[in-house]
Design goal:
Elements (H helix, E strand, L loop, with lengths): L2 H7 L1 H9 L5 H14 L6 E5 L5 H8 L3 E6 L2 H8 L7 E3 L12 E7 L8 H11 E12 L1 H4 L10 H7 L4 E9 L2 E9 L2 H10 L2 E9 L7 E8 L2
Parallel strand pairs: 1-2, 1-4, 2-3, 4-5
Antiparallel strand pairs: 5-9, 6-7, 8-9
Length: 227
């Protein structure tokens, strides 16, 4: 099963988890504020890469910004398109964007790149559709965190050192207040993301790690298309 198929399989659980009021404090108190710190002001079109059920895009729409979502899961794309406010969504793979060159001012990927099967092509396609001077901001699970086995404390640096450089698929399962979710992603070292960004012709202008533990759990990156 591909990562995209796994997310389609778990889509209903994810919609319930993401939309339960006050439920996902990791996003509302961690990921989203961290992304906002690096987002530029933009009056142009924003591409939400791997928009899921649409919560990041809805925040941008509510702030008066024009947003287009891209989502490979049919169930999640429908949820985003019928949310409140509704998010315009193309049901498509980020590795093959159905968009013209240089038509996007800002691209945002909120915790979606680690869930993509072909992340290098997704980043290359995002760069292709950005206009010169455009910006790509993304948040991912910090590779130091995803390198840890689910049964190993992320506070043990030795566990990270043994697993960090090996790209591999992982699953995390969470249960809270009667809801459960399985998150299926791919651990990749930071160099895999950085190499993809550089090969796409983007320049990293900001990189921030977040977390209260010995090992950070969130990485936020801002990259720009210079020409």
């Amino acid at each position: 099963m591909s990562l995209a198929d796994a997310w389609e399989h778990n889509a209903a659980d994810w919609i319930a988890w993401a939309r339960a009021p006050g439920h996902d404090d990791v996003f509302w108190e961690g990921t989203w504020p961290a992304l906002l710190e690096v987002l530029p002001d933009s009056a142009g079109l924003i591409l939400d890469v791997g928009c899921g059920e649409g919560r990041a895009g809805r925040q941008l729409v509510a702030a008066g910004r024009r947003v287009l979502g891209i989502e490979p899961s049919a169930t999640l794309a429908r949820a985003a398109a019928t949310g409140s406010p509704a998010l315009p969504v193309a049901h498509a793979d980020a590795a093959r964007l159905p968009l013209a060159d240089s038509c996007i001012d800002l691209a945002v990927a909120s915790m979606s790149l680690q869930d993509m099967d072909d992340v290098e092509s997704a980043i290359a396609e995002t760069a292709r559709v950005l206009r010169p001077g455009g910006v790509f901001c993304f948040a991912i699970v910090h590779p130091f965190d995803s390198a840890c086995d689910s049964g190993t404390s992320s506070a043990v640096p030795f566990a990270v050192s043994q697993l960090y450089l090996v790209s591999r698929r992982y699953e995390d399962r969470f249960y809270r207040d009667g809801l459960g979710i399985t998150l299926v992603g791919m651990h990749r070292p930071l160099s895999a993301y950085a190499t993809a960004v550089f090969r796409a012709g983007l320049v990293i202008t900001d990189l921030r790690a977040h977390g209260e533990r010995e090992i950070p759990w969130l990485l936020v990156v801002r990259a720009e298309k210079r020409s």
